[in-house]
Amino acid sequence: MAQAVSSPDVGHADPAIAVARHTEDVVVGDRIVRHSLASRAMHWTVGTSFILCFLTGMPIWTPIFGWMAYLFGGLQVCRWLHPFFGVLFSVGLVWMAAAWWTQMLMKAADRKWLSPRYFVQYLRFESTDPETGKYNGGQKALFWMALLGGLALFLSGLVLWFPTVFPETLRQISWILHDVAFVAFFLLIIGHVYLAIAEPGTFESQLDGTVSKPWARLHHPRWYREVTGDQRK
Amino acid sequence: MPIQGLEIIQSSASLRGQGTGLRVLPTVSKYIDTSTCIGCKACEVACQEWNDLDVAATHQTGTYQTLPTLHADFWNLIRFHEEEFEGGLAWLMRKDQCMHCADPGCLAACPAPGAIVQYANGIVDVNPENCIGCGLCETGCPFDVPRFSSKTGKMAKCTLCVDRVDNGLEPACIKACPTGCLHFGLKEDMVELGNSRVKQLQATGFPNAMLYDPQGVGGTTVVTVLAHGDKPERYGLPRDPRVAFAARAKEWIKPFGIFAFGATIVGLFAHFLTVGPKKPHDDNPPRAGG
Q1: Residue A171: which of B139, B278, B280 has the nearest Cβ?
Q2: What is the rounded CA–CA span in Å between residue B5 and residue B166?
Q3: Model confidence at A163, in pLDDT bands (50, 70, 90)?
Q4: What are the structural domains of chain A?
Q5: Chain B contact for A73 (CB, 8 A cutoff)
């Protein structure tokens, strides 16, 4: 893993960006490639389809957000579009599951990260457990919760899409499940977006795919050691 | 289509109706006496004709019933039930239609502002212009009445001929009924009529007769005399109808969700002011090549 690509002649003024098109977990100059183009395309398929589901679903959920419907031409259009965006979102989540599930398996270090003591320490932005790998326990937990929430939203959404073909009890359960799963999912997403803002340097990893070495060392120490070969803790 | 000039007291996905709420207006009612219904279906024809509804294709399934269930193009269905009672076989006929609940489950369920309205006179009407065709009204209704029309993509149901009522006429079905088992008038008058008919039935061999005006949905604008009132299920009526649980749960999930979103955003902003951001201590060298 500890390989350094340092050829300046890779077809871009910033060689790290060129490398990030096809590779990840490599050092290029003073940058580390964290997400290849494929990872970023997958992440933003999930992200943009979620935003579209959000904008078309919120006005149906409550009239307080009725104004969002005008972005699409009215509530009738939202009712028609929302399920299709939902299918796109589900496809994105299946892609995410296929691409990331092996990296998201919970290890001992992750369970430690998720223990109340370390979690509070994390929330205080105090320090990072030196055994934190490419993804910390919280990120892995988010991954699995997103898949679970996505499954609940997909199954209940299917029933709500074609209400007349499903029995009454199933429609009622689906209606409540869709609402509850959405509330839980959106709370997770608020936290996800917040951490991208509150931890500067994170958002770039989903734009050009790269992070700085100090960023990697601070947030993901074991991943930093594996990728750079720098054994300082 | 909501009638201009009729005061609206409740409107779907809106906090309140559009009326002033200052005037106390009388509520109307339709009275159905199942014990004098002969199943002639004149009311079905009158409903189709007045409301300009397409004729749905029928097929013989071994019953006199016109269609198996209500349809977006068929709002008034006489249901035929052959039921065994102690005294022998009873052939029960009931006029199935929108009950115009005082607490309408369809209206509580509807997410489209103004697509379902309740007038001060008690009639629950639909506004196709605002309907988004989501079908949640079907889930919210305890009587399984609203029907989604695949032709128009909208919901449709009995309007209690509000366009006639607004002009001082009785609904078309009542005009057509040959036995007088249907009546239309003020709610209190129809309840009085129903109670006196129930007493008559009780005195003539139907001790369990009752007037069906279920209080679980705040009472209904359509009140029904049942000779076998202890067994409303035999007529295809729910014993204790309530607004669907999901429609009620939504009223809690929505404010909780919105509060949780707001509290989380405020909390995280406070977190950022006190704790964040989390930046590396190391020198952050400018990007090479930039």
Answers
A1: B139
A2: 9
A3: confident
A4: 37-104+135-208 (1.20.950.20)
A5: no
